[in-house]
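Budget justification note: compute hours in this period were largely spent on complex prediction jobs such as the one shown. Inputs:
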Amino acid sequence: MTAKSQKHWSGDVRALLRVGKGFRLSKVDPAATPAYGRSKKHAADDLIAGSDELDELQERLYAQSRMPADEGQEPPSVLLVLQAMDTAGKGGIIRHVVGSVDPQGVELAAFKKPTPEELEHDFLWRIEKRLPAPGMIGVFDRSHYEDVLIGRVRELAPADEIERRYGAINDFEKKLTDSGTRIVKVMLHISPDEQKARLMERLERPDKHWKYNPGDVDERELWPAYMDAYQTVFERTSTDWAPWYVVPANRKWYARLAVQHLLLNTLEELDPQWPPADYDVAAEKERLAAT
Amino acid sequence: MTAKSQKHWSGDVRALLRVGKGFRLSKVDPAATPAYGRSKKHAADDLIAGSDELDELQERLYAQSRMPADEGQEPPSVLLVLQAMDTAGKGGIIRHVVGSVDPQGVELAAFKKPTPEELEHDFLWRIEKRLPAPGMIGVFDRSHYEDVLIGRVRELAPADEIERRYGAINDFEKKLTDSGTRIVKVMLHISPDEQKARLMERLERPDKHWKYNPGDVDERELWPAYMDAYQTVFERTSTDWAPWYVVPANRKWYARLAVQHLLLNTLEELDPQWPPADYDVAAEKERLAAT
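Corresponding output:
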């Protein structure tokens, strides 16, 4: 990892935030800023530096997809999966991290409560329809993981169906990875107190009232059940091909920098190249000059 | 129009660029910078100032759509239609103007050569499927106008069918406007020489080779035919409810500022408001505090 914007990081963000064997969500401090060696006042500058790198890597990824890939292989794409409790900052990640690259290279999908039509199909049906095309950066604002999170906590499906889904997710993500999509799964982790402060701010500011939903308070009662459901998700679906990253998110500036670096590292590994011309450059210069 | 970023404009951009009676495309200087009183070196700062305003207006538009609109009326949306000859800068508008707002409030649709399935349907079939949802800013990178531009120039449909389409477009856009969508139709106007220089740059820079297509040179031969087709489009489809704007685009910095202002003026007219709470704010504060 040689990114310029990497220089203020004391370690490999991916290694530090990755959910591995023995991971316990309850041991993660949502207010921590692992591996970032600077304070909040430098975060904005560092985010901009990272944005410039991300911008070029995204354009290369897109450009590369315009040429044929190896036999049986799609040109690569990236899929960022965002999961979190309400107010944890998914929207801010989309706006400030993803929003810094060319929107023509991004495909956003926000998954709300399933429609009656969606409920008639397998839970992955609506997900498959929103996968990023080759060369694109896809972003899932919520995802198929809702079906084993709220699905489990609110008992929206029978226990054996919930159980079946972990395996189905792993198979699905494996197939996706094999066909060229790099999956970056992120849980933004805030504390209940931080959520309370953020909800209170929505109640105190008239320009934020529309973001508040009385149901959010009811959902807070279920916090421990959600944390248990996340812990199970991590144990069952943090795989070699699609690991989870838990990003401490009480400090929004840290969470944005960290997710930006997870994306940067993923793209650097893909190392997309400007495709060579599939036409005769010298001949085209002559033709063009003659017009 | 009281926008802060408006202060360096000597006139109403919309009035100046709007296609009205007696408009002749051939009289428009693609290198002009109408109504903008400053030089290129200030353009970047002015674009940023405008971005901040656009950002807030977009968020208000989105927020407003979360509350019910008047009976039989959808909450408003905005649709920016971009048409231009190759290299005129549609991509730059999307990246630098539209890309400055929250991507969660934007729906992009790029219309390429129709698929066989699309060709089996009326030309508006694929268009209707990509209209922006209420509260969103939709952007069409090419549009239904291709069906009366390349469609006419390359004779992709019988003459009477092309003829029918102008009226069909006007009816379609009227219905759309009546149901709450503000349509902003922009043609980015460059000169043939400017296009030549831009294509040559793509041939000279290996990181731009992928953007060059030998067909672009063939299309240049048809320049006068395209200009005629645009002139006819303007005469037949610049309506009171959905007028065309022709934006001189030889200077990219001017075109971006001008389109930004067309969007700003449209949103200022809509004047979207933060929706009031549809719950008891004081009671919610108490409930939240008790958690």
